[in-house]
Amino acid sequence: MAFTELDWEEKVTKEEILAMKLGKELDAQLAKLLGKLVYKNREGRWLIRTGSRSLDRAPLPYSTDISAAWPIAVKMGLGL
User: Fold this and answer.
1) Within 13 Å of residue 29, how many CA atoms lie on the same side as its CB?
2) pTM beyond 0.70, yes or no
3) Cα separation of 41 and 53, whole Å?
4) Neighbour tally for 53: CB within 10 Å
5) 22 SS3 class
6) What DSSP state is assigned to residue 64?
């Protein structure tokens, strides 16, 4: 199975993340911010590498679910 590693090698700023549109690409960027190894498979789906391709999974919906997003808010200094 062919895959492409997530292109963003440089650090993404808080402002850049906050300016992105909600959706799967933002979820992939946010997963990378949490230290996950993210790639896009040949079908165009963003996945997190788990060590076994059969177990790789889509990133959590960080951009649309507050419970998934909370660790990111804390990491970015946006938590209470």
Assistant:
1) 20
2) yes
3) 10
4) 11
5) coil
6) T
